[in-house]
Automatic annotation (TrEMBL):
It comes from Nonomuraea aridisoli. This is Isochorismatase. Keywords: Hydrolase. One of its GO terms (molecular function) is hydrolase activity. It holds the Pfam family Isochorismatase. It comes from the Bacteria. Transmembrane segments: none annotated. The keyword Hydrolase applies. Residues 4-181 form the Isochorismatase-like domain. Coiled coil: none annotated.
Length: 187
């Protein structure tokens, strides 16, 4: 029998503020998190964060190099507020919080170790952005032989068409893609 974990990825206060044009997102995600807990499925939060000075970031890294450059002007992902999960979907004390250093939830984190130690072989993916953490994590998790479910409306992207193509055409090759309501019925 599969043992699942529910991943809430990059739903940090500062990231939600940048993707905040869907007022229904956090309440939908909260319902899914509550359903996972009610079904006894562990909830794991994945956040992106770095040490002060960004020693983990190479200037050759196009995505994260820009973050490090902006951080020198006063922003970034090194302080508590930047790495804080949005309070509307905040973790409970029993939840695991994993800090990653790249786009995939597995890259530069101990996520795989946490999952293997708990005997987890199936993942439910949610997060911001569909074309970022969700895509990268899905690809790596599939290569690690996890069974996968993506909650399409539990993911956000700044480009609605990219979100649609990923959830309707790309993700179904490696995952079951369902809505939160559909998933809650089976959780």
């Amino acid at each position: 029998m599969a043992k699942s974990a529910f991943l809430v990825m990059d739903v940090q206060r500062t990231i939600v503020e940048r993707f905040g044009d869907d007022p229904g997102y956090l309440p939908r995600l909260r319902r899914a998190i509550d359903a996972a807990r009610a079904a006894g499925i562990p909830v794991i939060y994945v956040v992106v964060g770095f040490r002060p000075g960004y020693p983990e970031i190479s200037p050759r890294n196009k995505t994260f190099g820009q973050i490090a450059a902006r951080a020198s002007a006063g922003g970034g992902f090194t302080d508590e507020r930047a790495t804080e999960v949005h309070p509307d979907v905040a973790p409970r004390p029993e939840d695991v919080i994993v800090t990653k250093k790249r786009v995939s939830a597995f890259a530069g984190s101990d996520l795989d170790m946490v999952l293997r130690a708990a005997g987890i072989d199936s993942l439910v993916l949610t997060g911001i952005a569909t074309s970022g953490v969700v895509l990268s994590t899905l690809r790596q998790a599939a290569d690690l032989d996890f069974a996968l479910t993506v909650l399409a409306d539990g993911c956000l992207d700044s480009d609605a068409e990219v979100h649609r193509v990923l959830t309707e055409k790309v993700f179904p090759r490696q995952a079951d893609v369902v809505t939160i309501d559909e998933w809650i019925k089976t959780a």
